[in-house]
């Protein structure tokens, strides 16, 4: 899972194997270690829950979790939609959220594109 933070937006890009794990286990997560200090880390996670609202964010120190409803996660995983998008209010305004399928890059070779969704633009002429 890839995390992108830009301004007041947060985007998670998820591979096919991670989508499968999310549906099976209910949660996927990654941790980035920021220095030799054991406490200098950030865990970011995606989970689904049957009673969850459309999208929400749960924050505790060193951990960000994006939560979506189970039905939205299944619909997205099984369908052609690129992502699930939403907004949540924060003390600093609105936080934009995106959970997207991680597509193969058109300018990368096979090793870099392993475990990605087929790019819908593959074979398109510019």
Topology:
Layout: E1 2-6, E2 9-14, H1 16-25, E3 27-33, E4 41-49, E5 55-60, E6 63-69, H2 70-78, E7 83-90, E8 93-101
Parallel strand pairs: 2-8, 4-6
Antiparallel strand pairs: 1-2, 3-4, 5-6, 7-8
Key attributes of the depicted protein:
alpha/beta, about 130 residues, 4-stranded mixed β-sheet, single chain, 8 strands, about 45% strand, Gyrase A, domain 2, about 15% helix, 2 helices
**Strand tally:** 8
Distance between the termini: 29 Å
Poorly predicted runs of 5 or more residues = none
Level-1 CATH class name: Alpha Beta
Strand content: over 45%
How many structural domains? 1
Describe the main β-sheet briefly: 4 strands, mixed
Give the rounded overall mean pLDDT: 87
Main β-sheet, spatial strand arrangement: 1-2-8-7
- Assembly of the depicted chains: single chain
Spell the H/E element sequence: EEHEEEEHEE
State the CATH architecture.
2-Layer Sandwich
Helix content: 10-25%
């Amino acid at each position: 899972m890839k995390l992108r933070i830009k301004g007041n937006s947060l985007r998670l890009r998820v591979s096919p194997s991670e989508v499968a794990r999310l549906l099976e286990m209910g949660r996927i997560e990654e941790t980035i270690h920021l220095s030799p200090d054991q406490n200098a880390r950030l865990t970011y996670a995606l989970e689904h829950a049957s009673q969850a609202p459309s999208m929400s964010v749960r924050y505790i120190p060193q951990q960000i979790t994006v939560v979506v409803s189970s039905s939205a996660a299944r619909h997205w995983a099984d369908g052609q939609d690129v992502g699930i998008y939403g907004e949540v209010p924060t003390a600093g305004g609105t936080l934009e959220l995106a959970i997207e399928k991680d597509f193969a890059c058109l300018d990368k070779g096979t090793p870099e594109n392993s475990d990605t969704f087929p790019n819908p633009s593959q074979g398109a002429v510019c």
